[in-house]
Amino acid sequence: MRPRILFVDDDARIQQGLARSLRCMRQDWDMLFAEGSEAAMATLEQAPCDVVVSDMRMAGMDGADLLKWVRQRSPDAVRIILSGYSDKEAVFRTLGPAHQYLAKPCDHQILIQTIGRTLELRRHIASDKVRALVAAVDTLPTPPAHFAELVHELDAPGSSAASVAAVMARDVAMVAQTLKLTNSAYFGLPVKVQSLTQAVRLLGLETIRNLVLLGGFFRHRGGNAETSQRLSLLIRRSLGIGELAAAIARLEGLDDRTVAHAEAAGVLAHVGSLVLMDRWPERVRAAGRLMERDSIGASEAEIQVFGASHADVGAYLLGLWGFTDPIVEAVAYHHSPGRYGGDNVGPVAIVHVSEFLSGQPEAGGNGQDIPASVLDRDYLDRVGILDRLPVWAALKQTMPGENA
């Protein structure tokens, strides 16, 4: 069955132009065009769509409110804003309901690639419930202490982009959501931003303050002590993987962009675990019990319980949010690099090794939330870096906090 794509705009001329430019996709997509939000809702009430692409400024219900309605009505639908509306406050209103923001005029090939990429990611998630869960994610949980630390730093007289970025860099959710925003087409950057400090400088401290005050961009998570401890362990482990991945990439003389990709992918490798812990904590514990009972790996247990692994969930979320392919691929294959088609020394290989060298969770964790990695030596041998493993292990021992 062909995927159904709904395009929404209250300007008939723009709709006609879209239809002409996308004519080449008629054999692959079932495309529908709705003039305005009311027509779009009527279409979706008749049958769901896989992707909804909406203009922002429309008479009556605007694009942000329409996509909020779509999120409730069809939670697994991919939601994209396509708009020439450049008001910053209006753009921020789309951060939750929209997975991606594309600026008009948008080259039709970019639009086709964006939609095609999200559809390809959907195919990797067999479970409708998991697709709906991930597509409904608009924010990720931040521990209250991290949230309070950010607020304190923003209010400090001598705060700077570097000092604020240093605080945000200690939290996986803040890293993911800030990079998602700065890499939206609203900023019109020729290349993707991978550095958190660069992202904070681009946004500015006043914008960061406004995002905190919005209450829907950075979400501090409460919960019981056990859940908070698991979340803290997961975040510390993820940050350690990112630091080690960046150090290995630099040691191997890789270019700055690859270093940034490796670091970001390492930090975000377990963003899928973060989503599952936040939304389905009881089922996460059930997966842990299944691992212990049947002596199986984390991914296998997660697939049995959820229908997808934490790596699948994380890659799907980051792909929906428009993260660049090297990061999405490294997150998707950080436990199973042999499934990856590439044979170069890049983020996939480096994050896989960094995950392995990071070892078991710290004392106090039960291991079910931060799965231990099994090293794929055949893959590393194929890529030609198996003999570098002792060097990288020695590098890890020199990193700050390793011998604390």
Description:
The protein is an alpha/beta fold. The chain contains 21 helices and 7 strands. The protein folds into 3 domains: 120 residues, 3-Layer(aba) Sandwich (Rossmann fold), CATH 3.40.50; 76 residues, no CATH class; 171 residues, Hypothetical protein af1432 (Orthogonal Bundle). Helices cover 57% and strands 7% of the residues. Strands 2-1-3-4-5 form a 5-stranded parallel sheet, sandwiched between helices.
Describe the secondary-structure layout:
Elements: E1 4-8, H1 12-21, E2 30-34, H2 37-46, E3 51-54, H3 63-73, E4 78-83, H4 88-93, E5 100-103, H5 108-123, H6 128-135, E6 141-142, H7 144-155, H8 161-168, H9 172-182, H10 196-203, H11 205-214, E7 219-220, H12 225-251, H13 256-268, H14 271-279, H15 281-294, H16 298-306, H17 310-320, H18 325-332, H19 347-358, H20 377-383, H21 389-397
Parallel strand pairs: 1-2, 1-3, 3-4, 4-5, 6-7
Helix pairs in contact: 2-3, 5-17, 6-17, 7-8, 8-10, 9-10, 12-13, 12-19, 13-18, 13-19, 14-15, 14-17, 15-16, 17-18, 18-19
CATH class of the largest domain: Mainly Alpha
Alpha-carbon distance between the two ends: 56 Å
| Unreliably modeled segments | 360-372
* Oligomerization state: single chain
Number of domains: 3
| Overall geometry | globular
Describe the structure using short key phrases:
about 400 residues, alpha/beta, Rossmann fold, 5-stranded parallel sheet, 21 helices
